[in-house]
Amino acid sequence: MTTNTETLFSDASTAIPVLEMQGISKQFHGVPALQNVNLSIYGGEVHALMGENGAGKSTLMKILAGAYIADGGEIRINGQPLKITNPAIARQAGINLIYQELNVAPNLTVTENIFMGSELQRGQFLDRQGMEAEAKQVLASLGATFKASDIVGTLSIAEQQQVEIARALKDKSRVLVMDEPTAALSDRETERLFEVIRKLRRDGIAIIYISHRMEEIYALADRVSVLRDGQYIGSLLREEISPQRLVQMMVGRSMQDFYEHQRQLHPSSVVLEVRNIGDGRKVDGVSFELRAGEILGLAGLVGAGRTEVSRLIFGADPKVSGEILLNGKKVEINSPSDAINAGIGYVPEDRKDQGLFLEMSCRKNIALNTLKREAKGGIVNWGAVNQLAKGAVENFNIRLANLELRALDLSGGNQQKLLLARWLAIKPQILMLDEPTRGVDIGAKSEIYKIISELAAQGVAILMVSSELPEIVGMSDRVLVMREGRLVGELDDSPEQKITQENIMQYATGAAEVQAV
């Protein structure tokens, strides 16, 4: 089936969608999660579903997959009404949902995973030969490089994802829902997944693709539909998609209002001075100043040494050269405890592995850095801790049912705000942010930008590492650019050194040095 959007939708009045969801509504404990949502998907189409966390995307898809039952509305498959009251009915209708957290049995073979719950039988015995032959055929159609006899636990995350796709194809899937499928994949694995998705589209399968990553939407989507606050906002054809329109639809305001920060042209006194620091490996002789109330962007390509600089300042890694001055006085920072005591906070790049304690409650995560302060005679004042946590949840608009909820159970954006709340509880004079909006949706990004701007307005000195150039350009008062472990450029938004994506990349790639020769 053709995937040309002009052909696909030129005669929409006569084409019958493979899937229609009409007037879908759902409440939880009297609170509306979906309100009269409409969605239509055609065969051979990659249809992106976007919206900030809490917009209703997951609820809508769980209704489609039979995990939830809608309070109202109708689902049609090829024009025929279908009442989906459990997952088995959805699968029989050719609807399969691949969750972000993969649903595989790691101790079983690929074949056993593909046929789990629908094993073939020959008389009273399992038809293992028949299942393996069919599994091989499905894997070959996907271009998989692993074997049907391999144990799934030995496969990479990307390969395990292919096992789930193979299971859906074995079930003769008409509609395949993929929820943030690239969250745990490398760039190479992501491109391989894209090849599989394009092949499935050519084979006529309708794919609903949930993602907050704009670049993936541009690469794959034939159409995009947007939900906001449980309501259907609208759909765009591929040629209509733009960052400006998507942001407007998702958050209800224009791209021009997205970045909250007003550039600070005359910042205050120097708070942090870094002189010639290095680690003997990835950082070589880095020096700079950071002022109170300033947002200093640290840019560069992957591997340039940006994260390593932050970790050296925070004492997470040992430095072999250089010194650090706070408010004009030299300080010895040899551990994160030294940094915290000096009023330096650090939000790391990987919030799950290096930032949050996922199995601990939100209350404890927020209060972790201040427990010593709240303890008298070795006994923690839990009343004060509770007040601190409640205030942080309100101030940062962290969406959770109660303070005892595990950090693991929050969305990416709420996890990031939880981590910010913990570091701001120490009232830092310097806050280092490494990829502060990585893995969060557009709505959460907007909220985090607002928090960062408010902190700068209060006089907090902020060092922000980011790989997203629009974020660096939109939020920074000044930008330092690194390449191969060294600082190679500074942009201060003067006429000669404007803060633009082009100027940042000139320094990051070495093109500025080539032009100067």
UniProtKB/TrEMBL annotation:
InterPro entries, per the entry: AAA+_ATPase, ABC_carbohydrate_import_ATPase, ABC_transporter-like_ATP-bd, ABC_transporter-like_CS, P-loop_NTPase
Keyword Transmembrane assigned: no
Pfam families assigned: ABC_tran
Localisation: Cell membrane
Domain of life: Bacteria
Gene Ontology MF terms: ATP binding; ATP hydrolysis activity
Keywords from the named record: ATP-binding, Cell membrane, Membrane, Nucleotide-binding, Repeat, Sugar transport, Translocase, Transport
Protein topology in the membrane: Peripheral membrane protein
Key word Glycosyltransferase present: no
TM spans (from-to): none
GO cellular component, one term: plasma membrane
Domain ABC transporter: 19-254, 265-509
This protein's name: D-ribose transporter ATP-binding protein
Organism of origin: Aliterella atlantica CENA595
The organism's taxonomic lineage, starting at the top: Bacteria, Bacillati, Cyanobacteriota, Cyanophyceae, Chroococcidiopsidales
